[in-house]
Amino acid sequence: MKSLLCMLLVFTGINIHSLAQSFSPDLIGYWHNWNDPNAPSFPLNQIDSRYTIVDVAFAIPTGGTDYKMEFIPDQFSNATFISHIQALQNQGKKVIISIGGASTHVSLDNIAERDTFILTMANILDTFGFDGIDIDLEGSSVSVTGGTISSPIDAKIIHLIDAIKQIMANYYSTHNKKLMLTMAPETAFVQGGMSAYGGIWGAYLPLIQALRDSMDILHVQLYNSGSMYGIDGNIYTQGNSDFIVSQTEAVIQGFNTSGGMFVGLPQEKVAIGLPACNSAAGGGYTDTASVKLAIDYLRGTGPKPGLYTLQQLNGYTQLRGMMTWSINWDAVSTCASAYEFASNYENIFSVTTFTNEVQSTEIPIDIFPNPTASHFSIRTHKDHCAYRVVNILGELIQEATYFNQFINVDASGWNNGIYFITIDSEKSSTAKKINVFHD
Fold it and tell me: Residue 390 has what pLDDT?
C-alpha cells in the first residue's frame, strides 16, 4: 500500500541522519485587495501557478476601532471571491488572510478587545474558507516597553498572543485541522533586537517565542529596512546578497538581546521575503542574480557571494522558500519582466539539494510540544497517511489512518522514553524523535 499511502511510524533504532533532507519549498506572495493602477488587481484564480501560498492583503479593523476586524473583497462579490479561493485550494494551494499591513493600526488593549478580535477573525476565516492567518502588523501595532522575550509585560502583546492561540484552538476544534500561521515582520521588529530591545526594536520576538510551535513560516521583510547587525557583529545594508544571507541566518541561529536570548527557528520555518521589483518597495530590491547567489549559498549549493560567512558552513538545505510583495507587482511587465520573481524562485529551487546513498528524500514534519507529558501534534505535508505507534521493543501500540496534514496523538498511556517518528512513502522517508516524560 506504500504506493497509495505514506506510512507514519513511531519507533526506535533509526539513524535519522542517514535519511536525505529535501522537500518542495514554497513560493509565497501577497495579493492586493485593491486596485493599484501600477499593479492592478486581478482574480485570485489567475495567479501564476508557481505560487503555492497566497496571502490576501488585508483584514483590517472596522472604522473607529483598532480590534474589530473585517474583510470585504474590493473588486468582487463575496460569492465570486470564495469561488476563486476554492479554485486555488483545489489545486493544492493555501490561501491565507493577512492581518494589518503598513497603514493599519491593530491593538488589543484589554480583554474585551481581545475577545472581539477573536470573534471577528473567526468570522472572516469561516466566511471565506481561508486556510490560515498571516500577522503583518507594523508601526506602533507591536511595541515593547519592558519585560523580556520570554516574559512580555505589554498588554497588547500578551492579548495578541492569547488571541492567536485561541483562534487556532477554536479553528482546530471546528475544522479538525491546523490553521496555518505565518508572520511578516519588518527587520527592525526581529533582527533589530540585536541593536536594542524597546519600542519596535525586537518587538515581534515575544510573539515568535510564544507562538513558535504553532507557527509555520516566518518571512521577515528584507526590504524597507535600515542597516542591520548580523550575528557576526558586523553591519549589513539592504539590497545585496550579504543582507539576505546575514539576516536569514540570524533568525535560524538566534541571537542575544537586552530582552534575553532569542532562540532560532528551524530552517524549514524560515522563508526569504523580498520585493518583486524596485517599484514594489521603498528600498531593498535585490536583483535576481544576487538573490540566487545568496540563496544558493544559504542552501549549501553555491559559493560565498560577499563578505558574510555562514556559521553553519554546509548551509541550510531545508529553507522554506521565498516570499514577495507582491504577486500583483510580479505579474506586471512594467515591474521587471512579468513574473520575474516567480521565475527566479523556480530557477533557484529546481535542483534537489542532495540525496543519500538510498536516494530517498525527506518529508518535513513538525512535532509539538516536544517533549510531552500527554498529548502532542504532528503536522505533515502529506494527506491520507497510515499511522502506527511502536514502542522501544518494536511492539505495536496503536494504528489508524488520518485524512489531513494534522493529527493529535494521545501519549498519556505511553511509557517514559524516546520514540522516533518516521514517515515513509514510495519516494521519501524521514525520521524525528519525540520525548515522552510523565510527571
Answer: 65
Instruction: Please indicate, yes or no, whether residues 308 and 362 belong to a single structural domain of this protein.
Output: no
Task: Identify whether residues 289 and 269 lie together within a single domain.
Answer: yes
User: At 404, which amino acid appears?
Assistant: N
- Based on its alpha-carbon atoms, the radius of gyration of the chain, rounded to whole angstroms, reads 21
In a domain, 86, yes or no: yes
Residue 191 lies in a domain: yes
Pair 39, 95 in one domain: yes
Burial 145-167 (b: 16+ CB within 10 A, else e): eebbbeebebbbbbbbbbbbebb
Domain count, the chain: 2
Contact 405, 178 (CB under 8 A): yes
What's the pLDDT tens digit per position in 392-423?
Answer: 555 667 776 655 666 778 888 888 776 767 66
What confidence tens digit (pLDDT) does each residue in 86-123 have? 999 999 999 999 999 988 999 999 999 999 999 999 99
Cis peptide leading into residue 371 (ω within 30°): yes
Which residues are annotated as catalytic? Answer: 138
- On whether both 39 and 133 belong to a single domain, the answer is yes
Say which amino acid occupies 9: L
User: What is the distance between the alpha carbons of residues 432 and 206, in angstroms, rounded to a whole number?
Assistant: 27
Residues 11 and 34 in one domain: no
Q: Which domain holds residue 48?
A: 25-348
Side by side, which strands form the sheet with 366-368? 366-368, 375-379, 406-410
- For residue 177, give the C-alpha cell: 485541522
**DSSP run (H or E) holding 253:** helix 241-253
- Per-residue pLDDT at 422: 67
Residue 118 shares a structural domain with residue 212: yes
CATH of the domain at 388: 2.60.40
Closest of 244, 71, 309, 272 to residue 184, by C-alpha? 272
Please answer whether residues 336 and 276 qualify as being in contact, where contact means their C-beta atoms are separated by less than 8 angstroms.
yes
Rounded mean pLDDT, 55-81: 96
pLDDT tens-digit profile of 225-276? 999 999 999 999 999 999 999 999 999 999 999 999 999 999 999 999 999 9
**CATH number of domain containing 171:** 3.20.20.80
Rounded Cα distance, 389 and 411, in Å? 10
Q: Kindly state whether residue 423 falls inside one of the protein's structural domains.
A: yes
More confident residue, 336 or 406: 336
Is 20 part of a structural domain of the chain? no
Q: Which amino acid belongs to residue 403?
A: F
